[in-house]
From TrEMBL:
The keyword Transferase applies. This is GNAT family N-acetyltransferase. InterPro entries: Acyl_CoA_acyltransferase, GNAT_dom, YpeA/RimI_acetyltransf. The keyword Transmembrane does not apply. It comes from the Bacteria. PROSITE patterns: GNAT. Keywords: Acyltransferase, Transferase. Residues 10-154 form the N-acetyltransferase domain. It comes from Bacillus spongiae.
């Protein structure tokens, strides 16, 4: 598997389809069934922001997945110390290629990217009903250190 940085918003939008579909199925009240044009326009609008990095995973000349990561710097406040992280917005492997270790290799690439930039923490979140993501991240050593809860008001 080959992992490269990319600014090809069209490839990222195409590879995003399975992530967006999963979110829309799990949380239909929250996520839209977006059109490819909407998603392409969104990624085109942010693809060159310096804090965002898009990693493209390829195997045998086929694009099979991607990761959207962000450099985040948290300023010191009266309550917290300053720190930097790499935040994983999205990671996805095409469903036809899942279960072959490609997601693990992509996560390793993200962690190596962080270390190469002097950053020792990778943060991410996932939706509670996405039990596959939860299990995947747990096998990679990710631990909860903060939980966010909500209450629907009627």
């Amino acid at each position: 598997m080959k992992i490269t940085e990319t600014n090809d918003f069209q490839k990222i939008a195409q590879l995003n389809k399975s992530v967006q579909q999963l979110h829309a199925e799990l949380y239909p009240d929250h996520f839209k069934k977006s059109t490819n044009e909407e998603v392409e326009a969104f990624f085109q609008s942010i693809i060159d922001f310096p804090q965002f990095i898009f990693l493209l995973a390829s195997f045998a000349e086929e694009d099979i997945g991607y990761a959207w990561i962000e450099f985040r710097h948290y300023e010191e406040t009266p309550f917290t110390k300053a720190y930097q992280t790499i935040y994983v917005h999205q990671i996805s492997i095409d469903p036809t290629h899942k279960g072959k270790g490609y997601g693990s290799k992509l996560m390793s690439a993200i962690e190596n990217f962080a270390l190469q930039h002097g950053i020792s923490k990778v943060e991410l979140d996932y939706w509670v009903q996405n039990t596959v993501a939860k299990a995947f991240y747990e096998t990679k050593g990710y631990q909860k250190y903060r939980e966010v809860v909500c209450k629907e008001l009627s």
